[in-house]
Amino acid sequence: MTERHGDARDGHEHPRTTGEHGGRGEQGPPDAPDAPDVLRPAWDELVSTARRTVADGLVVGTSGNVSVRVGDTVLVTPTGVPYDRLTPDDIVGVGLDGRQVLGSLRPTSELPMHLAVYGATEARAVVHTHAPHATAVSLLVPELPLVHYMAAAMGGPVRVAPYAAYGTPELAENTLRALTGRTACLLRNHGTIAHGASLDRAYDRTAQLEWMCRVWLLASSVPGLTPALLSPEQLAEAGERLRGYGQRR
Predict the structure, then answer these.
(1) Alpha helix (H) ranges present in the chain?
(2) CA distance 210 to 221
(3) What is the pTM of this model?
(4) What is the pLDDT of residues 193-228, one digit of tens each?
(5) 110 belongs to the catalytic site
(6) What torsion, rounded to 10 degrees, do the Cα atoms 107, 109, 113, 115 define?
(7) Strand, coil or helix: what is 127?
(8) CB of 32 within 8 A of CB of 104?
(9) In 3D, which of 20, 86, 17 has the Cα closest to residue 49?
(10) Residue 7 phi/psi, 5° resolution?
(11) pLDDT tens-digit series, residues 41-68
(12) List 110, 170, 233, 240, catalytic entry
């Protein structure tokens, strides 16, 4: 992520200047090329999506991170820079091997998790947040109870990946296991991650997941009552109906 423990995405800020701890200039690739024109619109959309996570309350400050894959280049939010300060010149890109190929700002510290998702799925975009209701649910259960049929849009019951320190290969591995057959999961004591064929799709899944978590927390908080849950059969039926949902192109 761009997370709190040594990363300003969650608190301990790295100054946005040149120097040992990141910023413009000395930490990026020395001969980083200008971004090809095809990457500029993707970067603009990435920045817009990142700002939306803040506006919609899915992250606080600079927590969370967003990436989008264009060919063999992954554009990703940089560590420790508030999203409202990002400009077209702040573009950050890495190869699928993690080597930085664009920009001088350091990539998010959650880069291993993003690259793991791209390596194991057909994803073209990844959104990671610290959404409050989803994070709360991750503390309570190993899987989000089936409170709503939109779980089918994520491939089935949404799992909780076991806790591991942010930015580690262990977290990336835990995430991939929880994402098996799914397009979103919860990260214990941490937040959410969702992927899709576009930034809009990944973001929509993130928002839906946060909403479902809020619904379950609200329903389960009523004394003396137990939330009614969908059966696997009902979820499967919803999944079939969702395949034909929306406008045909």
Answers:
(1) 39-55, 111-120, 132-138, 169-179, 199-220, 232-242
(2) 17
(3) 0.85
(4) 999 999 999 999 999 999 999 999 999 999 999 999
(5) yes
(6) 20
(7) strand
(8) yes
(9) 86
(10) -130, 135
(11) 999 999 999 999 999 999 998 899 999 9
(12) 110
